[in-house]
Design brief:
Largest sheet: 6 strands, parallel
Structural class: alpha/beta
CATH class: Alpha Beta
Order of helices and strands: EHEHEHEHEEHEHEH
Oligomer: single chain
Radius of gyration: 16 Å
Shape: globular
CATH architecture: 3-Layer(aba) Sandwich
Helix content: 25-40%
Number of strands: 8
Strand content: 15-25%
Amino acid sequence: MQGDGIYLVYIHGFNSSPLSLKARQTVDWFVQQGRGDAIAVPELSHEPARAMADLCDIIADRPLPVALIGSSLGGYYATWLAERFGLRAALINPAVRPAELWQSHLGLNHNFYSGRRYAITQEHVDQLRALEVPTLTRPENLLLLVQTGDETLDYRHAVDKYKSAVSIIQTGGNHGFVNYDAMLPDIIRFLSQR
């Protein structure tokens, strides 16, 4: 069965949730493979330090090797985790410099899925900046997937940052990554390599 031997952590993006389309598609794929107990899709705090602490706890508690899929801000988090723990990660339209973007989100925000309101502070921006990985030391552990039609992030920043990683660059698409579910078998194959 594909994905045997790994425990997958799916990391959603900013203002997203475990209810996002890609998160649900990933869970569905694992369930169809008979591996529904080998995936976690945590609902992350808007506070980067708390989100990262929660993700580190999930990783530390697993007997199987952990692999990551991170979307947008989740790709930024996945990069830090992959470097710290030596994990394999697939990065879907990842944020490269999210601290810069968060400057425009200071103040009250609204989660599209939960409806929850929360505040982004300068402290949160600083927490995000502290997670930046300036140099990739294990690019062979990373799979970059970007679509040039991403309307939220400039895909060229990710292509430049992850130029030494395995990359799939698709023309068109959008920030949600069109046809993500069709890419899952290839993503899981990459993540399962040891």
